[in-house]
Amino acid sequence: MTDYVFEDCEKLGFNRTRLEAVPAYFNSYLQRKKFAGISISVAREGKIALLSHQGKSAFEGGFALDDSAIFRIYSMTKPITSVAIMQLYEKSVIKLTDPITKFIPAFKDVKVFDKGTPKDYTVREPERMINIHDLLTHQAGLTYDFLLEHPVDALYRNEKINGARSEKLNTAELCAKLAEMPLLFSPGTAWNYSVATDVLGHIVELASGKTLDAYFKDHILDPLGMVDTFFHIPDDKRDRLMHNYSYDPLKRETKLADSPERTIYRPGRAFLSGGGGLLSTMEDY
Q1: pLDDT value at position 2?
Q2: Residue 40, domain extent
């Protein structure tokens, strides 16, 4: 276990006593076996005030957590994809008001869910087309399959549109399937957390002429010196990858979802999820 509160934490505006209590609080989750390991970093203005590593990379076996541990950062991929979009905006390659049909024509016939159930529903015309700003702000009318609030969520599950967990689709194929699904609402009229950033990732590819991993590497990761951030785990770094667990609320049990030995983040995986596909270390990110 590593717990270190840096000397100048108070100069950064943190209360030392409260900061020191953070690792102890999260340690209670380890004691109850809610997590195999926990890494914590608290920073401000580029300076670290607290660094803590507790536990191991797996419930059974694994390695003691340290700065080298590689995590699946899931939705923290979204800020990097959004930076890429804004870089293209700064270069006047795209406009935030651009309709996404400029890049993905399949969306030209998209409809809005009107009423009904996942098995029997009606649709209506959208008031306007989705634009890039809608995708950035989750106002496009898209959703996620793991949400349980709307019939369209169930349609995503039925069609196996599962964002970063997709193994069989590439990004273009995902967008084509999304274009066949009804929207929850007319673009710009409401908010819903969604696969919108995956669509943004594909737009980065189409607008830049590069694959998403190549664009990230050339324009974001390499310039920032982020050497441990990628979509595919290199073979020589696989032993640093965390085991990944999921919780089944019905069975009330934790099960292994992904492991270094059988990871879906292997080289050659077709789907580069701009919404949740990156691996990274705490230090890199």
Answers
A1: 63
A2: 1-66
